[in-house]
Design goal:
The complex is a heterodimer of chains A (388) and B (383). Chain A is α/β, with parallel strands linked by helices. Chain A is built from 18 helices and five strands. In chain A, strands 2-1-3-4 form a four-stranded mixed sheet, with helices on both faces. The radius of gyration of chain A is 32 Å and the shape is elongated. Chain B is elongated and about 105 Å long. Chain B starts with a helix and ends with a helix. Classes of the chains: A alpha/beta (388), B mainly alpha (383). Chains A and B meet through helix 2, helix 3, helix 6, strand 4 and helix 7 of A and helix 2, helix 4, strand 3, strand 4 and helix 6 of B.
Chain lengths: 388, 383
Amino acid sequence: MHKEEKNLFFHLYKYRLKQLLKDRSVIFWTAMFPIILGTFFYVALYHASDSQDNSFKAVPVAVYDSGSYKNEKEFQAFLKEVTSKEANYLKITTVSGKSQGENLLKKGKVEGFITADSKISLQVTSSDFNTSILKNILDHYLQTENMYEDAAMNHPQILADLSGLLAQNQNYTKNVSFGGKSLNNMIGYFYSLLAMSMLYGSIFSFINALQIQPGTNEIAARRLITPTHKMLIVLSDFCSALTLQMGIYLVVMLYLTKILGVDFGGTPLTLFVAGLAGNMAGSGWGYFVAIVIKGSEKMKMALNMMLTLFSSFLSGLMVGNMKPLLMTYAPWVNKINPATLISDAFYYICIYGNKAEYVRCIATLFSISAFFCIAAYFSLRRKTYASI
Amino acid sequence: MPVFKLYVKLLKKNRRSVATYMVIFLLLMMVFAFNGASSQDQFQAVKGQFTIIDHDHGKMSAAIKKELSQGNEFVAVKDNARDIQDKLFYRQVQVIITIPKNFTNDYMAGKDVTVSTMQVENSAASTMMKQELNSYLQKIKVYEKEGDSFTNAIDKASANQKIEAETSVLNSGNKQDTTFYYFFRYVPYILVSIILCGMSPVICSLQKKEIQKRNNCSSYSLRKMNLELVLGSFAFGAFCLVLIDGIGIIMWGNQASPVLIGYVFVNTLLQMLVSMSIAFCISMWLKSPNSINGAANIIGLGSSFLGGIFVPLSFLSKKIEMIAHCIPVYWYTRANETFSKSTILTASAKTIIYQSYFAQLLFAIAILILALIISKKRYSSAV
């Protein structure tokens, strides 16, 4: 690039940036969108992960205190053990009638109703995690009872030792760490939000792209009437949009990390590079939609917004398990979807420090950006206008 | 009704962009519904997901896998860090069990043996599976002590693990969620997004200063103009509502009784009125389509997260739920959750539903009044 071209480039870059900055409403909404939604996520979700992990709480259950239950001394002792402070698996309410127990169950006061008439049985109103635990506990009792009966019948010599053997509680499992930084698993929503905000930033390049197509835009007609090389205009436009996007990204990141205190993990450099790659993909995306796709301005705008939203949806912004679902049924979608690639870049470097995967995501994002820009360039080049 | 006619004309002119919004949002809605649906008639224990990385390839590892698979779901995981990290982070498995080399031989030789487990922190499912594993291995040991051979001990321990307590489901009028209710759970997000994106460009173009000044010169009063604009917006909202409700009822209507379908329809109708009022208000307030898109995202996504659409209300803390009372979507979700949990609507369920209807109606009226005040102010400033 010659010195004159360089000067011209910076001149165009500066004035394009000024022009974009003047559209306050677009800047406001583009920056406010991740800030407001990030605040919502923080308030509603950031501290909600404990309940999602199904942390265990004693299950409320009713037991029918019938005549046969009174005779089941072992079962009573077992229930006492599982309701003890140390075990705290169950919270028992004893009822004197079956209808009383069923009423408690219907009203949702208890999650299960245990009767021990001819055999031990359980009534529930739904199949969920707590009722499954309840059933497991009863299964365990019946299985142990069966072992005693079997020993009494076939091996009476070890009956005396059996309780000792069963009570040994030898632990055959050893917990090991899987090497990831223990972050709130709701952080995935924040990664998807950042991805969406970067793609949403495509609005700046979208505006730029509309303003270099004289056939549909008056400002474009004025800009392209000059003898300036089209490539120089496009390049300076691209850089100005990217600068603005990066500025918004940095403000959003500072707000989320310093003011809200969201722990993203990773180093400032890795977060910056991920932001740069994501924003470049967003810029390329804006150019692609505005130039390559044919249609009215409104139609293109609608498409740009919808594609951004759809890409973010696939990365798990609205439904958290979307990414693992695609990983199972259509893994290629995760490998090319820009929003997924952005959130994955954060995920791999911030949680697991997995540099190879991080580099793969960043490289794919740069390639996508290049692809979009080249496609837009070929669609734009050598277009001349006899009269505008 | 010239303003109403103009409204329809402008809407027709924007039909392609409106159709784009509709197709993509309806597509999203279908995915939401299929993704969240689960329907169970009999008791089915909730399954934990586990995987085994087997370095032993012996009798014992095969037995462990077979045993745990009885009540849980085995998920295949590649023995590499990336796959393990992904599966645990996204909760696709709760526990990963690594069986070391020579595990079977060491166990038979009477050595102290352990398997390594990696698990989701604080997960009750992983604790349950680990307990099941410990109990199984302990039983094998007990049967061996009783004098059984190793193979017999495995068989007897497996047979013992199959003994289950008789479990029945009591019909309490409660039921599991169905695709029908999952589909309708997402209606507020889709409605507010489609109506905002479809309606706002039309109203915005009528709010342009020059056009407003021209309209103000006419003998047509602001009251009449606004009335026809509201009517036009209602017609567009009703079209969206019929389309969305129609899809839901045609595809999954058989999962609900006609009475419940009626209640669901009223709920969506009220939510449509709320969405229409919001869109009307935003269009009166913001001028450029770009700003409206930004506002649509914040309102649509924000209220869906706080109102219990994307994240169930049970996940929200009490404080946040209190704040959520100020969001119309919360009331829609509250009513929808009541429908989804009941086959017969009890008096208390009906109270919740009517409360929710009333709250939504109040929100719709309040937001519409706000929109008309903004319109009046704009009219005065344009004169």
